[in-house]
Amino acid sequence: MPAAAAAATAAAPAVAAVTTAAAAAATAAAPAVTAAAIAAAPAVAVTTAAAAAAIAAAPAVVTCFETSWLCTLGALNPFMYAYLGIAFSLGFSVLGAAWGIFLTGSSIVGASIKSPRITSKNLVSIIFCEAVAIYGVIMAIIMSNKIDGSHEFVIPAEFSTDVVNPDGSLGNGWQADLVVAGYCLFSVGLAVGFSNLFCGVCVGVSGSGCALGDAQRGELFVKMLIVEIFGSALGLFGVIVGIIMVNNKNVQFPSVAEGHGVPQ
Q1: Within 13 Å, how many C-alpha atoms sit on residue 225's CB side?
Q2: Closest CA to 139 of 180, 187, 177
Q3: Which is higher by pLDDT, 163 or 72?
Protein backbone atom coordinates (compact mmCIF):
# COMPACT_ATOMS: atom_id res chain seq x y z
CA MET A 1 0.00 0.00 0.00
CA PRO A 2 2.77 2.57 0.74
CA ALA A 3 4.29 1.71 -2.65
CA ALA A 4 0.95 2.30 -4.49
CA ALA A 5 0.45 5.59 -2.69
CA ALA A 6 3.92 6.69 -3.62
CA ALA A 7 3.33 5.80 -7.33
CA ALA A 8 0.06 7.77 -7.44
CA THR A 9 1.77 10.76 -5.86
CA ALA A 10 4.55 10.59 -8.42
CA ALA A 11 2.10 10.39 -11.38
CA ALA A 12 -0.12 13.27 -10.23
CA PRO A 13 2.06 16.08 -11.75
CA ALA A 14 2.03 14.33 -15.16
CA VAL A 15 -1.77 13.96 -15.16
CA ALA A 16 -2.19 17.58 -14.16
CA ALA A 17 0.16 18.66 -16.94
CA VAL A 18 -1.76 16.69 -19.62
CA THR A 19 -5.14 18.07 -18.44
CA THR A 20 -3.79 21.61 -18.49
CA ALA A 21 -2.44 21.15 -22.03
CA ALA A 22 -5.81 19.79 -23.31
CA ALA A 23 -7.70 22.72 -21.76
CA ALA A 24 -5.31 25.17 -23.36
CA ALA A 25 -5.79 23.54 -26.79
CA ALA A 26 -9.59 23.72 -26.48
CA THR A 27 -9.39 27.36 -25.45
CA ALA A 28 -7.18 28.14 -28.45
CA ALA A 29 -9.59 26.39 -30.89
CA ALA A 30 -12.75 28.08 -29.59
CA PRO A 31 -12.23 31.42 -31.42
CA ALA A 32 -11.71 29.59 -34.72
CA VAL A 33 -14.98 27.64 -34.32
CA THR A 34 -16.86 30.81 -33.37
CA ALA A 35 -15.41 32.67 -36.35
CA ALA A 36 -16.46 29.87 -38.73
CA ALA A 37 -20.03 29.89 -37.36
CA ILE A 38 -20.21 33.69 -37.74
CA ALA A 39 -18.90 33.45 -41.29
CA ALA A 40 -21.53 30.82 -42.22
CA ALA A 41 -24.45 32.76 -40.74
CA PRO A 42 -24.99 35.02 -43.82
CA ALA A 43 -25.18 31.95 -46.07
CA VAL A 44 -27.90 30.43 -43.84
CA ALA A 45 -29.78 33.71 -43.87
CA VAL A 46 -29.56 33.89 -47.69
CA THR A 47 -30.86 30.31 -47.97
CA THR A 48 -33.78 31.09 -45.69
CA ALA A 49 -34.59 34.24 -47.63
CA ALA A 50 -34.43 32.34 -50.92
CA ALA A 51 -36.83 29.69 -49.60
CA ALA A 52 -39.26 32.35 -48.40
CA ALA A 53 -39.09 34.09 -51.78
CA ALA A 54 -39.76 30.82 -53.60
CA ILE A 55 -42.79 30.13 -51.43
CA ALA A 56 -44.10 33.64 -52.00
CA ALA A 57 -43.54 33.39 -55.77
CA ALA A 58 -45.30 30.02 -56.10
CA PRO A 59 -48.79 30.38 -57.61
CA ALA A 60 -51.61 29.83 -55.18
CA VAL A 61 -53.46 26.59 -55.79
CA VAL A 62 -57.14 27.38 -56.26
CA THR A 63 -59.45 24.41 -55.84
CA CYS A 64 -63.09 24.23 -56.75
CA PHE A 65 -63.92 23.89 -53.06
CA GLU A 66 -63.16 27.61 -52.68
CA THR A 67 -65.64 28.64 -55.37
CA SER A 68 -68.41 26.04 -55.25
CA TRP A 69 -69.46 23.36 -52.82
CA LEU A 70 -70.96 21.34 -55.66
CA CYS A 71 -67.54 19.89 -56.50
CA THR A 72 -67.79 17.99 -53.23
CA LEU A 73 -70.47 15.85 -54.84
CA GLY A 74 -68.12 14.98 -57.67
CA ALA A 75 -65.41 13.89 -55.24
CA LEU A 76 -67.59 11.28 -53.52
CA ASN A 77 -66.96 7.61 -54.16
CA PRO A 78 -69.39 6.13 -56.74
CA PHE A 79 -70.00 3.17 -54.43
CA MET A 80 -71.36 5.65 -51.90
CA TYR A 81 -73.73 7.05 -54.52
CA ALA A 82 -74.91 3.53 -55.34
CA TYR A 83 -75.67 2.62 -51.76
CA LEU A 84 -77.35 5.98 -51.15
CA GLY A 85 -79.59 5.24 -54.12
CA ILE A 86 -80.55 1.90 -52.59
CA ALA A 87 -81.26 3.57 -49.25
CA PHE A 88 -83.41 6.29 -50.84
CA SER A 89 -85.34 3.79 -52.93
CA LEU A 90 -86.24 1.61 -49.97
CA GLY A 91 -86.57 4.37 -47.38
CA PHE A 92 -88.87 6.70 -49.33
CA SER A 93 -90.99 3.77 -50.53
CA VAL A 94 -91.55 2.52 -47.00
CA LEU A 95 -92.25 6.07 -45.86
CA GLY A 96 -94.92 6.50 -48.55
CA ALA A 97 -96.50 3.15 -47.71
CA ALA A 98 -96.57 3.91 -43.98
CA TRP A 99 -98.05 7.35 -44.61
CA GLY A 100 -100.78 5.90 -46.85
CA ILE A 101 -101.66 3.13 -44.40
CA PHE A 102 -101.82 5.68 -41.61
CA LEU A 103 -104.29 7.85 -43.53
CA THR A 104 -106.42 5.00 -44.86
CA GLY A 105 -106.39 2.85 -41.76
CA SER A 106 -107.48 5.61 -39.42
CA SER A 107 -110.44 6.48 -41.70
CA ILE A 108 -111.48 2.85 -42.07
CA VAL A 109 -111.39 2.24 -38.34
CA GLY A 110 -113.27 5.46 -37.60
CA ALA A 111 -115.96 4.96 -40.25
CA SER A 112 -116.48 1.28 -39.42
CA ILE A 113 -117.87 2.27 -36.04
CA LYS A 114 -121.03 3.50 -37.70
CA SER A 115 -120.86 1.23 -40.77
CA PRO A 116 -119.16 -2.09 -39.95
CA ARG A 117 -119.85 -3.39 -43.46
CA ILE A 118 -117.06 -1.27 -44.99
CA THR A 119 -114.26 -2.90 -43.04
CA SER A 120 -113.52 -5.93 -45.20
CA LYS A 121 -113.81 -4.52 -48.70
CA ASN A 122 -111.94 -1.31 -47.90
CA LEU A 123 -108.90 -3.31 -46.88
CA VAL A 124 -107.98 -3.23 -50.57
CA SER A 125 -106.77 0.32 -49.93
CA ILE A 126 -104.32 -1.02 -47.35
CA ILE A 127 -103.09 -3.56 -49.89
CA PHE A 128 -102.46 -0.82 -52.45
CA CYS A 129 -100.42 1.11 -49.90
CA GLU A 130 -98.43 -1.96 -48.94
CA ALA A 131 -97.63 -2.59 -52.61
CA VAL A 132 -95.75 0.71 -52.64
CA ALA A 133 -93.29 -0.63 -50.05
CA ILE A 134 -92.92 -3.84 -52.05
CA TYR A 135 -91.94 -1.76 -55.10
CA GLY A 136 -89.13 -0.23 -53.08
CA VAL A 137 -87.92 -3.60 -51.81
CA ILE A 138 -87.85 -5.05 -55.33
CA MET A 139 -85.85 -2.11 -56.68
CA ALA A 140 -83.41 -2.23 -53.76
CA ILE A 141 -82.70 -5.91 -54.48
CA ILE A 142 -82.20 -5.27 -58.21
CA MET A 143 -79.89 -2.32 -57.55
CA SER A 144 -77.81 -4.16 -54.96
CA ASN A 145 -77.25 -7.02 -57.41
CA LYS A 146 -75.67 -4.56 -59.85
CA ILE A 147 -72.85 -3.64 -57.44
CA ASP A 148 -69.77 -5.75 -58.01
CA GLY A 149 -66.22 -5.38 -56.75
CA SER A 150 -64.93 -3.78 -53.58
CA HIS A 151 -61.47 -2.53 -54.56
CA GLU A 152 -60.17 0.84 -53.44
CA PHE A 153 -61.30 3.49 -55.90
CA VAL A 154 -59.91 6.98 -56.37
CA ILE A 155 -61.54 9.35 -58.84
CA PRO A 156 -58.87 10.42 -61.35
CA ALA A 157 -58.22 14.01 -62.28
CA GLU A 158 -59.28 13.25 -65.85
CA PHE A 159 -60.47 10.35 -67.94
CA SER A 160 -58.15 9.60 -70.84
CA THR A 161 -57.01 6.77 -73.09
CA ASP A 162 -53.37 7.72 -72.46
CA VAL A 163 -53.36 6.90 -68.75
CA VAL A 164 -51.03 4.01 -67.90
CA ASN A 165 -52.61 1.53 -65.50
CA PRO A 166 -50.67 -0.51 -62.91
CA ASP A 167 -50.84 -3.60 -65.15
CA GLY A 168 -49.38 -1.71 -68.10
CA SER A 169 -52.63 -1.23 -70.03
CA LEU A 170 -53.75 2.16 -71.28
CA GLY A 171 -56.90 4.10 -70.51
CA ASN A 172 -59.13 4.47 -67.47
CA GLY A 173 -62.47 3.98 -69.16
CA TRP A 174 -63.43 1.39 -66.57
CA GLN A 175 -63.28 4.15 -63.96
CA ALA A 176 -65.61 6.29 -66.04
CA ASP A 177 -68.04 3.36 -66.29
CA LEU A 178 -67.90 2.91 -62.54
CA VAL A 179 -68.62 6.59 -61.87
CA VAL A 180 -71.54 6.56 -64.33
CA ALA A 181 -72.92 3.43 -62.69
CA GLY A 182 -72.80 5.08 -59.27
CA TYR A 183 -74.57 8.20 -60.51
CA CYS A 184 -77.18 6.08 -62.31
CA LEU A 185 -78.06 4.00 -59.26
CA PHE A 186 -78.28 7.16 -57.18
CA SER A 187 -80.69 8.72 -59.69
CA VAL A 188 -82.73 5.53 -59.89
CA GLY A 189 -83.03 5.48 -56.12
CA LEU A 190 -84.29 9.04 -56.03
CA ALA A 191 -86.73 8.48 -58.91
CA VAL A 192 -88.20 5.29 -57.48
CA GLY A 193 -88.20 6.57 -53.91
CA PHE A 194 -90.00 9.83 -54.62
CA SER A 195 -92.45 8.14 -57.02
CA ASN A 196 -93.43 5.65 -54.37
CA LEU A 197 -93.54 8.31 -51.66
CA PHE A 198 -96.10 10.42 -53.49
CA CYS A 199 -97.90 7.32 -54.71
CA GLY A 200 -98.37 6.15 -51.13
CA VAL A 201 -99.72 9.54 -50.06
CA CYS A 202 -102.07 9.60 -53.06
CA VAL A 203 -103.43 6.13 -52.38
CA GLY A 204 -103.75 6.88 -48.68
CA VAL A 205 -105.76 10.07 -49.17
CA SER A 206 -107.98 8.55 -51.85
CA GLY A 207 -108.45 5.38 -49.78
CA SER A 208 -109.44 7.48 -46.80
CA GLY A 209 -112.05 9.29 -48.89
CA CYS A 210 -113.23 5.96 -50.28
CA ALA A 211 -113.83 4.58 -46.80
CA LEU A 212 -115.72 7.67 -45.66
CA GLY A 213 -117.77 7.82 -48.87
CA ASP A 214 -118.58 4.12 -48.73
CA ALA A 215 -119.81 4.53 -45.18
CA GLN A 216 -122.38 7.05 -46.41
CA ARG A 217 -123.25 5.59 -49.82
CA GLY A 218 -122.24 2.06 -50.72
CA GLU A 219 -122.40 2.62 -54.48
CA LEU A 220 -119.42 5.02 -54.30
CA PHE A 221 -116.96 2.25 -53.47
CA VAL A 222 -116.41 1.00 -57.03
CA LYS A 223 -115.98 4.53 -58.38
CA MET A 224 -113.46 5.44 -55.68
CA LEU A 225 -111.65 2.14 -56.21
CA ILE A 226 -110.89 3.18 -59.79
CA VAL A 227 -109.32 6.36 -58.45
CA GLU A 228 -107.12 4.32 -56.13
CA ILE A 229 -106.02 2.05 -58.96
CA PHE A 230 -104.85 4.99 -61.04
CA GLY A 231 -103.13 6.46 -58.02
CA SER A 232 -101.34 3.18 -57.36
CA ALA A 233 -100.07 3.13 -60.96
CA LEU A 234 -97.95 6.21 -60.26
CA GLY A 235 -95.48 4.20 -58.21
CA LEU A 236 -95.45 1.45 -60.83
CA PHE A 237 -94.36 3.97 -63.45
CA GLY A 238 -91.33 4.85 -61.35
CA VAL A 239 -90.44 1.18 -60.88
CA ILE A 240 -90.65 0.47 -64.63
CA VAL A 241 -88.41 3.40 -65.52
CA GLY A 242 -86.00 2.45 -62.72
CA ILE A 243 -85.66 -1.13 -63.99
CA ILE A 244 -84.98 0.11 -67.53
CA MET A 245 -82.28 2.48 -66.27
CA VAL A 246 -80.62 -0.10 -64.04
CA ASN A 247 -80.51 -2.75 -66.77
CA ASN A 248 -78.78 -0.40 -69.20
CA LYS A 249 -75.65 -2.07 -70.57
CA ASN A 250 -73.51 0.92 -69.56
CA VAL A 251 -74.50 0.60 -65.90
CA GLN A 252 -71.96 -1.84 -64.50
CA PHE A 253 -69.48 -1.96 -61.68
CA PRO A 254 -66.24 -3.52 -62.97
CA SER A 255 -65.12 -6.41 -60.84
CA VAL A 256 -61.64 -6.81 -59.43
CA ALA A 257 -61.44 -10.22 -61.05
CA GLU A 258 -61.90 -8.63 -64.47
CA GLY A 259 -58.67 -6.65 -64.16
CA HIS A 260 -59.26 -3.26 -65.79
CA GLY A 261 -55.89 -2.02 -64.66
CA VAL A 262 -56.60 -2.72 -61.01
CA PRO A 263 -54.03 -4.74 -59.05
CA GLN A 264 -55.30 -8.23 -58.36
Answers
A1: 12
A2: 187
A3: 72
